[in-house]
Amino acid sequence: MKLRTLIADDEPLARERLRFLLSGDEEIQVVAECRNGREVLAAVKESPIDLLFLDIQMPGRGGFEVIDQIDAARMPITVFVTAHNNYAVRAFEVHALDYLTKPVEAKRMQDTVARVKERFASQRALLTQEQLRAVLATLETGGAGPRQEYPLRFLVPNGTRDSFVNVGDIDWIEAADYYCCLHVGAKSLMLRETIKQLARTLDPSKFVRIHRSVIVNVGRVSEICREGRGEGAVVLTNGQRLRMSRIGWQSLLECSRRETAAR
Description:
With 263 residues, the protein is of the alpha/beta class. The protein is 35% helix and 30% strand. It folds into two domains: 3-119, Response regulator (Rossmann fold, 3-Layer(aba) Sandwich), CATH 3.40.50.2300; 152-262, CATH 2.40.50.1020. The protein has seven helices and 15 strands. Strand 13 (221-225) and strand 14 form a beta hairpin.
């Protein structure tokens, strides 16, 4: 999988330098170059970007202003690039993965790219591990009646750190384009998986997709509200009210029936 990369700098030579340093890595694909903050916002909105090299001082909107205006669902891994080193603390406060000072040296860029790859690989490895467990369970039973394995934790990137989230602690999940927003108590964490992928991954006896953009933890549902023959809503134990489609209502009822029958 190639990392779709965007380079943003108002200086042509600076963009050329970054492009040259990245050109030898087959896993990096520079898909766009921008000269100012307005172009960055448009590019990120137009198509998914995995990695953003962002100059802090640009005409119009600077790097920090750009970060403030990018929707969390579209936020790529960000590496700040600047001629000044006095912005480092603020860069990490906005959860930048790294901070490069111009002129960027080849070895320093290699270290940064390695960290970026580790961030993506760590999340993928966790999902692969869960899939492998399912395969091994199938082999152990000879293919007869395999027991489906479901993930117990997700690894969620969070700035310079990666956070483990227990699946059972998730209240509900909200679709956000190529990401999903995990609502865990008062926290909202972005996971780079589509809601369709998560719906296939999670235990259907505990998590139900009640709307095309919502998955709910069945154990958190306190009320089901039907509003005519169309959409309804569910109310969680924390008071959160979530949209529910007709198909979602049927799925939730079917899940409740299976749970009752299993007791």
